[in-house]
Design goal:
Spermidine/putrescine transport system substrate-binding protein, 357 residues, single chain, alpha/beta, transport, SBP, periplasm, D-Maltodextrin-Binding Protein, domain 2, binds pentane-1,5-diamine
Length: 357
Amino acid sequence: MKQLVRTFLTIILVSIVLLSITNRLNQSQGFSGSNTLTVYNWGDYIDTDLINRFEKETGIKVIYETFDSNEAMMTKIEQGGTTYDVAVPSEYMIDKMIKENLLIPLDHSKLPNLKNIDERFLNLPFDPDNLYSIPYFWGTVGIVYNPEMLGGMEITSWNDLWDRKLRNEILLIDGAREVIGMGLNSLHYSLNDTNPKHLQEAKAKLDTLTPNIKAIVGDENKLLLANREAAIGITWSGDASEIMSENEDLDYVVPSEGSNLWFDNMVIPKTAKNIDGAHAFINFMLDAKVAAQNTEYVSYSTPNKAALEFMPEEMVNDERFYPAPELTDKLEVYENLGKRNLATYNELFLEFKMHRK
Ligand code: N2P
């Protein structure tokens, strides 16, 4: 019995010594707790070479997961099954996450590269001092289309999409705010409208678009458009930019009735386990050359002013993807409409999808 107790105590002692050595090793690298970092980002939204470089430079192993809508991201974070160290939500979801106490305040002293961000993208209303979020990419929602496939037809407005000639030609992005927003905008209502009557009207109007809709898709929209399987895609500006860089026939337009201006930002969720590593990752992504490489790869618009000089001029000077403030001022940023209203948007979107079947 004595022998058993002694063996047991020895095992415990060895475990404690091993644990403290590992901890000390981690701390000497400047990273608290575990030496892995779990990053949760939109699909097709990073140059994976940069993840490898970050891993090499820091010794931190990155576990990388993706989502394709803010709503999907939020559900997963609320469920808490996986804990994420860095996530990349859009502005209205950040507002919601701050209010629900789901984010950790950032330590700006660990983010010296924050100086690279253009002031135009800092201190925005959803996070006035960037206490919780750091700009990653920004853009608009619009229509990418192939005029040649449409016999030279020019599209300038949401309402153009209801044209009978466009039967089975439209790909919609799989996002509740984007699609319901398009219905609202086409009726000249705000993207943040919460009037139940207006929302029902928007849904009814979207239902009448059904014959023209080919599919509601995620990132595969790029391949479908590039392969000419559809002539029109409702999507985010960066996706349009990527497809257009491969096919010059395509064009991108921000519809005349108005549209959405969005900002995606890096945040650290409350459940994060590697907070130092998360800061190191955010700071790494803010480096001018890293941001330039990332931007060239994903084709979205960077808020990193210092990165612009490392990017091809034709990219930076393309006003469709770097619209001037005079244009963006006319667009609407999604607001956090509160739990009930966001649920209504989701329900209407779901009903609209069911209606198609
Ligand atoms: C990248 C999606 C970007 C999301 N595939 C726009 N908020």
